[in-house]
Amino acid sequence: MALTDLSHLRLPSACRETLVERRSERIDNHTVRIAADWWDNEIAAARLPGAPVAGPGVTRLSRGDLFTDAARHGSGSEEEVLRFLWRVLAWGSGPKLRLNRRRIRAVADDPSSAVAALRKALRAAREDPAQAYEALRPGGRNAIAYLGPAFSTKVLYFAGGGALDHPCVILDSQVAATLRNICQWDSLGEGGWPTSTYARYCTLLDRWAHEESRRLGRRICGDEIERWLFRP
Q1: Does a structural domain hold residue 171?
Q2: Which of 13, 52, 129, 178 has the most CB atoms within 10 Å of its CB?
Q3: pLDDT tens across 214-225, in order?
Q4: What is this structure's pTM?
């Protein structure tokens, strides 16, 4: 299938309507219930650092919480990097734990390699989405087993600490379904996206964000559009 010409795609009016809402409400306060005890127990069982994933009695994490994590220590010590990863995974999974035990075990199999890949990705994420994505998906495979595009792009996104000019955004199956079915990105597959596709996606959302910034007279960021794409 020929690649869709993304320069012809327009942001749906339904998404444009949501952008009048305050960014702090739609993004910073976007909160998910997490299975904190499960994460702490599994991390301890794997003898890995980074727990607890939340403070005493905390059962929910917001995007704003993870922005604070990245701003403080997203690329620091091994313990700090892994705690950042666990919290991103906990937020991204919510109460649905799915493959997370396997992800934890994959890190435990070779912690130094996992942390090296994460550090490389976190450094690149603020400047170059393609380089950052390739760090976690080298040659189209997972650098950390079971950490595929949906979760690796969450890591890249939160690495920006909420910066308004951060170039990396989340791409998962729900976002992709909206892009295909509503936005008419016909050539976008259902998963396992190559680095070039992720780079094109980030460029598309950046264009839409700049167009909407001019229309509304305030800075619109790609994550505000991604939020709608996830649940239109």
Answers
A1: yes
A2: 129
A3: 999 999 999 999
A4: 0.96
Q: Residue 166 has which token pair?
A: 């951060």
CA distance 153 to 24: 21
For 185: left if phi > 0, alpha if psi spans -120 to 50, otherwise beta; the answer is beta
List, for residues 114-158, the tens digit of each pLDDT value.
999 999 999 999 999 999 999 999 999 999 999 999 999 999 999
Token readout for 21 is 């809402």
Q: Examine residue 1 and state whether it is found in any structural domain, yes or no.
A: no
For residue 132, the SS3 value is: helix
Total domain count, the chain = 1
Alpha helices (runs of H) in the chain, residue ranges in sequence order = 13-18, 23, 36-45, 63-73, 78-93, 100-109, 111-125, 129-136, 149-158, 173-181, 195-216, 222-230
Closest to 170 measured CA to CA, from 182, 159, 157: 157
Tell me whether residue 148 is in a domain.
yes
> What one-character DSSP code corresponds to residue 74?
T
H helices within 74-194, ranges in order? Answer: 78-93, 100-109, 111-125, 129-136, 149-158, 173-181
Q: How many CB atoms lie within 10 A of CB 70?
A: 24
User: Looking at the domain assignment, is residue 146 inside a domain?
Assistant: yes
- Domain with 140 in it: 6-230
